[in-house]
Specification:
Layout: H1 9-12, H2 27-33, H3 43-63, H4 68-84, H5 92-106, H6 113-124, H7 134-154, H8 165-178, H9 181-186, H10 189-200, H11 205-208, H12 211-225, H13 240-244, H14 250-268
Helix pairs in contact: 3-4, 3-5, 3-6, 4-5, 5-6, 5-7, 8-12, 10-12, 12-14
């Protein structure tokens, strides 16, 4: 990491794994999930940790009544941070909780910090009583403030990224008008596409492709799952996916689908 992104030790203290308090990740969990402690040297091990953290973020977001766009933004902020920083250096639960709060500000769906802390704490520690100590609450609030500044600096104060949601909404509407109404209405293509889009944020595929390409791939995959073909596609001069995004190839679509399937494979390995 370049010198311009390094905070002083006092500012970074609440997020460093080696000396952060244990309100979000208790000592037992830290030993379990820290790659350096368990000698995890493979990329797959870190992917499993990230999957688990994003699932925690999604569960917390649902409880906080966040809509899909802020939740997606939170996941992207989290993944971008750990694309730069090492997992073993930071408490991923604290980074995830802070990403939720930051995303709510970015997408102007503001949440109270106290609500974010309480919900995330209860989601993380289901077997513990609610957080009542004002000292512990103040500690987490301070940790989040320091963590938010750290994330902002690591990401160069650029925490926005174009999302596939608006494109998928448009593509579904257009394809629905194109398809036979009876086939479209009895097949849950829309619900499947939105579910896939939500699920893919558990992995880093959301960082690796253009928003339009992800939307096309999700729609292609949904149609493939139900064996639905777009009418007259084989006879048309331009494939239906190129109508939506003229710079994407079928090979790129299949590559994105493989990455989505890899995310689902992670869930089986938890």
């Amino acid at each position: 990491m370049s010198g311009s992104l390094v905070l002083d030790s006092k500012m970074a203290a609440p997020t460093r794994r080696k000396d952060h308090h244990t309100l979000m990740s208790d000592s037992k969990t830290a030993r379990t999930e820290d790659p350096s402690r368990r000698r995890r040297s493979h990329h797959d091990d870190e992917e499993l940790v990230h999957f688990r953290i994003v699932r925690f973020m999604m569960e917390s977001g649902i409880k906080l009544r966040m809509t899909s766009v802020p939740m997606a933004t939170a996941a992207i902020i989290y993944h971008r941070f750990f694309s730069v920083c090492r997992l073993q250096d930071f408490d991923p639960y604290l980074i995830g909780m802070t990403a939720i709060s930051l995303a709510s500000k970015v997408e102007e769906e503001h949440l109270k910090i106290r609500d974010v802390i309480n919900v995330c704490y209860r989601t993380r520690h289901k077997d513990k009583p609610p957080l009542e100590s004002q000292t512990e609450l103040a500690d987490l609030r301070q940790a989040m403030a320091s963590c938010e500044l750290l994330i902002m600096r690591v990401l160069g104060f650029n925490v926005t990224k174009e999302l596939p949601h608006k494109y998928l909404l448009h593509y579904l509407k257009s394809l629905g008008d194109w398809m036979d109404a009876s086939v479209w209405n009895r097949t849950p293509i829309r619900d499947t596409a939105w579910a896939m889009l939500r699920d893919l944020y558990h992995g880093k595929v959301c960082l690796q492709h253009k928003a339009q390409h992800i939307a096309v791939a999700v729609l292609y995959f949904s149609l493939l799952c139900y064996g639905i073909e777009v009418p007259l596609n084989n006879q048309a001069e331009t494939e239906w996916w190129k109508v939506f995004s003229d710079d994407i190839s079928e090979e790129q679509i299949k590559n994105i689908i493989e990455q989505i399937m890899d995310v689902y494979d992670l869930e089986k390995r938890l």
